[in-house]
Amino acid sequence: MAMENVLKCLVRDSQALGRGFLHIKQQSQVALEMLESQTGLMQSTPHELREKCFIALHSALVSNSGHLLKLGLMGVQKLLRDNHFVSKHCDPPDDCQWLLSQLLDCLSFPSWTKVSEEVQIEMTKIYISFACLESKYLNLNAHVIVDLLTRLLDMGQSGGVKSRKHQVALQTASVQNLQTFAKNISVSVTLNPQNLVPGDCDVNQVIPIIQFLCDKLEDGLVTAQVFPVEFSLESIQALLNNLPDDVVLNSRSHSFVWRTLCPTLLKLVGVPCPNAPATTDCKISELRCVASIGCELLRLFGNVSVLRAPLESLFHRLLVTDHITTRIEMFKTIKEVFSKPHRLLVIGGPFLVEASNQDTFPEPNEFGILRVLFDGMEESMQTDNVELRTIVLTCANTLLTSLLSLTGSPTSMQIPDSFMEKINLLYSDLESCDYIGALSYPTRLRMPKTYEQLLKDQTTIPVKPPTIMIDLTHLMEDEEATETTVANNLDDDNCSTTSGVTEGPEIVDDVESMDKEPENDIEFFGANDGYAARSNHVDLERLAARKFLEDLQMFIPNLGSWRSPLEVDLALQQFASNYCEDAGQDHVIFNADGIYLATYVTLLLNFELAKREYYPSRTGFVAQSEDDFIASVLNSGILVYLTPEFLAELYQGVLVSDVIGNAGFNVNADSNTSMMFSCAFINLLTDVRQVKCPEQATCFLSDCRKLHFAFTPNFLLREPRRQAGLKFARRLLTCFWDSFLFIYSNGVSPTSNETDNQAISQALECLQNAAKLANILGLQDRSGTIFSLLASVACGNPQLGSALVRQKSSLKNRLMKARLAGLISKPVFDIDLPHILSLDVVLNKGLELASYNKEAWTHILRCCLYVTELERRVYQSKKTDRFKMTTQLKQYTSKIKWKLSNSVGSKDNQGDDLNLTSAAFGGLDEDSNSTDSYSFLTAASQLPNNDNNIQQLLEKAVKCDNYKNTGQLDSKLLARIIGVLSERVDLLMEDAAAKLNLKSLLLLIEELCQLCHVQLNHLDEENISLQCNWVLHRIGEVMLRSVKTGRPLYHALHCWAIVGPTLLKAACCSDPAIAKTSVEILRSIISHVLQEQPEPLHFHFNEALFKPFEHVLCRENIDPDLQDQVMSSLCELVECWSGEIRSGWRPLFACLRRWPPPPQGPTDMCSTNRLIHSENISTVKEVLAAFVQQGGCNPLIFANAAMDAILCQLHYLKCYRYVAELSDPALDYLQKFAKLLGQLCGESNQSPVFYSAMSLTFLPNECDFEPLIVLASEHRDQMEAEEYGCWSSLFDVPRPQSGHAVKLWDNNTGIYKVFYLLVDGVTCCLTHAKDPVQKSIGEVVMATLILLVDIQEYEFAVLCLRCSILPGMTHWLTGLLSINRATQTGGGASLGTFKQVCGLLCEVMTRLLSAEETSRLVDTNDVSALFREVTLFYVECAVQDDESLVRIGNSCMRHLIVNCGQYFRTLCPSGELWEVAASALCLIVRCNLTTVQRLIQNDRAGEQQERQQFRLQHLSMQIFNQPVAESLSPMCSCNIFVALLSYQLAINTIANIVCYSNSILTGHEKILKSAVFAENMQPCAPVEPKILAILTSVLRLGCEFGIDFEIALGMRRHLQKLYGFSKLPSLAQVTGLSSDLLVVALANIAMHYSTHMRDLEQWLDFLIDFYFQESGNELPTVDSVPNISPPDFQLVSSSKSKENVGTNDGDLSPVTETTIVVQEEKEERIEGEANECVSSTQSGSVEELDEKKQLLETREEKDFEESNSSPSSSECLSGARTPQEDDHIIKQQMAAALESYRRQKRLQTRILKTAEPKSPRIMKIAPEIISKILLLSAIRLLSRLNKDVQNSFQIVWNIMSRINLHCSDQQMRKAHEEFEQLFPLYAFESDGCQDTVCP
């Protein structure tokens, strides 16, 4: 019905009612007429029309008629629906004429108390209808709105108590109109931002409205009326809620908010009281409304800095209430705020409106309000109320969900342009937006002091923060992680996310030691083998470092052409190899591993500095200090030959020079933009670690990152709005990360069990979102705690996860607790949905998140172990029915089902953004352990093959009838779920090994190894050994896959540095199964590395691979089966990869040295037979053959392992000498090694460096000639000073250390050290061996020396001879002599071998001395010292009491002199070698003659030895030309014959020298033929006269000895009787030879030195006088008696010696004096008888004289026998004597015998003086005396003087003339006549001389 009809009704009804209603009729008619008139409608405005109508309607409303009231209300409604009455643009400016004002006037009543509630409600409906009009028909402002609100308040407050319906209607009307007002403001702001059109709503008009409402609110609080309070709150909320987000209020409005509105609200909230009564529903509603208002204020004014403080106060007051219900309502409101991403920007984003007066308003914090909210959330999570905890978790999850939407593809609604521009302006990249400031105002600072100090340090000088710690992988650590580490552990002063390293494969007994900072010591798999060049030449090291940087700078530009990182790495390897090749001749020692590692760390440091824009200004923060840089190389666990000085110089060089930048590489290019086109060199560096690149997939290798960015459009990644969302989300998370973790940790460990699974489910969802955000925002390094909580839920121990998060202990302790928690020792058969969901999240999302945080891997591996344990128990027990769902899950099954159903629909969106679950790199070659191997699990194969989605499987399980009925999961589905989880574990490990960069991969490997160490320390617990096997297999798989995926060598080196020690410890554990598993994994890894990573030249990383095997075999009490397994593995590796082992040969030989266990001796037949029949014997031979083959082809391979190979063979040679199967090949290979070394010595300029020998110290052996020196010193008093001087110089041998050849030891290549080790080792085996192999060893030793001579390594041969061979031979000789004296066996086979080796040594010396280059290449002093030592060695052999030694000693001496004498002058121009040879011969003669005299005088020919009869016969025929008796007494021995043999052999050698040095006498060939061994005479080089002078002393000694021997008839008869000779023994032959040689020598000396003619004259005078004495022809005159008298039978040839003897007599003991008295009495008696004989001779016949003479001789012999037997009586009286007493008595007997012999000689001389000349008859009877023989021979020799030297020998003719005058012997005369023919001039002159005395 139209308005006209309403007016007509009013006219009609008012008329019907009577006079009192006529004014209504009139007013209605006026309005009706205007409406019905066309002119009126056209000329009247809408407000005029409304005015006419409202007058009539108002009158109807205020009338007391109910019918008219209804018509009036109906008319108002009709008017609002008619467009003729509503027009916005036609209304006047006066708001009193606006529709709402007119409406208020129309609906006004004088008193509202008389108006019923129904009418008032209908009126509110009219107000609501007005609010529902279109905005184009409404004119509103603050005034009219306030009027409306006043009307509504009046309506609500008038009268009595109103119903709730009435209040709601009023509030609804207010809210609806305020919403309309706010919408009009929004429209006006949108259409006309500047608000220039009259009538539009001004945004600032909301302030008066809110002011009015605040006043009413305060009035309500004062009057304690509920309605005004609720009405005001609802109205304010409605107004603020509908204001647009982009509304801009002036500063006055800002002031109103913090001065009026917020205080009013705070007054309403009030101060919390602990004992306050429970909050009513009304109060709760008010607080909820206040919270909503506060949220709206945040939305509108949150970006205004000055309003943050009051808003913080408001929310703080709201959240401090203790009433749970109130808090729940607060968080529900907050949840709504968190659900809108743009609201988060306003609350926590940057301020868009800054404060104009900083002094008035303190500088706020952008996250201040959020901090208050999170504090409330944290506090709420500590309560027991499940609903409150759940709503808090929902809030946190909502917040994370909003952040996820901001990080995806945000719209302009989610991130307005203003915020986008502001955020991108403030923060250039993700890293710069990390929150590092205070958490609120300055009064609430939470930063620790260490963190403040870190910030200060970053802004000052470039030094390392004090909290940075070094770990094993810090050389690949991003220094930015240091700051993150500090931020992650704000409440942990001792925390560290790093762990230590084991240097090389040494066993780590304490797992905690792996977390300690390693020390600066160098050991790759053991301190014994870790060699580092610690040079003292610092300057040299630094120069080498500078040269290295220069070469690197020149090399880097070449890397730009390579297309893959692997090719670049190969180029770097080649660079390191070439660098070591070129630097091989320098004084600084390198290895390619060290250069390769130094290259990487240098480039990485340069790369980081360039990334941080350190260059070119060279200012900024340098996170890696010099010590860290050095430690990154030296503590890397890799074998390096680098010094700290070298590395320090590299570090300083990189700080100064931008190596990469100078090469033309731009490292600051956008990583995402240039990913598809970046160079391989930069990718190689980023494959180690990323720097300043927090985007997704940065933990992956460059190839994987390319795949990721290929599937993600670049414009989406770099879109500014998305970047702003990422930055804001990252900043918020970095600020509240700890709060989130606190909330989650309490969420997964509820305090009550009522609905704990619901809270866990909510918490799991939160953790998933947090994990996603951490991955997207580059906060993966903070994901450790997330995984701690997830793993705790998954493994059924949520309290542990909460405790790990909340505890304040160090990270190391927390990780240790987590690892121990992963050791499952109890059966687990109950599994629920949270377990499965948590496991799914951990295994699906864990790869990249854990790749930045070591702690995350700890918990992921816990889950992996849990899955493995479940799988194993299912497989073993097959009791799948025991896996059941707990009944507590039923109450929220519907929620789970709902989530699952939703996730199925969006499963494509729920996939992994990085495609982490794909196996892009294929699988391993080996069979992998998957669920398909379990036969009973194949029942699940009924499911589709691609049905591996855990959520789908859970959905099916929940829908099963079994679960609906019993609450238990279907056994087949559950088995399939476990199988899928197991597959996820396999895929996780495979992807980690194939995709992660080195830094991330090392985190996984390190955690696997540390977990293995924990398990190895708890093997006594149940099931731990099974888990340890699983971990070991995972370690092996990760290592193998990392090798097989084509990673750079740098990656393999660092991975093995961690894996090696772990596998070693496992191989050495007590569990045989684990040990064997570890050995097998070692073998597999080594095999694949040898296959995939060929070792370049000068590298040694293969050595580290084989090191664990060596340490395994070093264990004591090793299991034989494990030992055989190791050896079989080595054999297999050698067989398959002998060409690739290279540096691995060294530890391989170290392994062979420790296998097999050596037998205890030749009687240990069990061990010997086991070795002989063992299959592993062939292993040794195969290894050696392969090494020789490879070493011969590649000298570097041989050089690296030569020392170890030699030590191995020496070990076999020493310990397995009874096992020919090992000792014989060892000897053969040693000889082959010697040949290889010889070849390398021949190419000394190209010889490789033997690094393993560099640490060897030169400790030479020295020959021990002390016994010989003592023996020679006994004759000092019996020699002239000149002669003793020659002997003393013979022993003056310089020490080997002072020799010139020692310089070879310092050779840069070290080859001579290795060669010397071989020679010395074989020599030691030779001198200690006592079995048949000794002969072969000796041949090898001498063959090696001959090899050295042949390759002209004369100097090294001298070194070996002096320092090893000769000392060894001397020691061997000493041992043989001790054995000979102890056993009386003569040495046996060892002596024969010794003779052979002596002969070979002589041959070596002959070759060495006769070589043409020896004199040029060997120092003279070294040659002299060597010849002295060799000569002394042979002298020592020649003076022994063994025939074999005597013969070999003399033979070798003669061989050296005869064959090498011609080179003596060349080798030593001073003639020193001839002096040494002559002195040595003299020493032999004198020592042997002394021995003969001692044996004869003691009447002890030596101890009887068995089986010497034949040798006695042989020696007797050689020496005395007559055999001994067939049966000899026990006193008989060959010692005296041996001494005489040695004497004669020495005389023969002297004969060679003298005869071939004769230049003035002819016919010396006859002299040589007269020698005892004439057949051995050979030509010899002539010597100088001074050498002959040295020899004359012993020749004279020999003559005197022979003369004394011949005239001692009693002694000769004694020997004849003792040995059964047929005639008296005689030394006439050798004595005659000595005399002839003496004459020849003296003659030649006299020819050159006339001063020595007197020596010849004296000797001839002695021979003539002695002849006259012996023959009795004529007694010489006193004047003509020579000074040299016939010596006694003692080595005394001078008066000095006689005096010495006399002096010694006075020192005898009383016993000796008594003996001498007895002897003197006997001699006096003999002298008396002799005098009688003399007197009778003068008167008697010649026959009587002969008889008395014979009687005298008989008595002399008898006295001699009595004197020798006299001590026996005293011995019988005194009983047994000690050896000292025996020696004392022997000395007494010797002294007495000497004195007796001298007196007998004096008596004999007196008899001869008084006797007349003998008759011819007597001469015929007397035998030919020795004097005649000697004299005749001398005359005949002198008769052969050359005529040109006759004038020099006039004195000889004068002496010889005495023979012609006094001698009657025809032979003498004839000989004299021949001599006179030589001097015809002297003979003619003598004929005319009348003086008979004149010659």
TrEMBL record:
Give the top-rank taxon of the lineage listed in the UniProt record for this protein: Eukaryota
Q: What keywords does the record list, in alphabetical order?
A: Cytoplasm
**UniProt xrefs under SMART domains:** Sec7
Organism, scientific name = Daphnia galeata
Looking at the keywords, is Cytoplasm present? yes
- Indicate where this protein resides in the cell: Cytoplasm
* Gene Ontology terms for molecular function: guanyl-nucleotide exchange factor activity
Q: Which PROSITE patterns match?
A: SEC7 (PS50190)
KW Nucleotide-binding (keyword) present: no
Membrane-spanning intervals of the chain: none
Annotated GO biological process: regulation of ARF protein signal transduction
Locations of Basic and acidic residues compositional bias? 1719-1728, 1746-1758
Alphabetical list of Pfam families matching this protein: Sec7-like_HDS (PF09324)
Any idea what this protein is called? SEC7 domain-containing protein
In the UniProt record, the signal sequence range is none
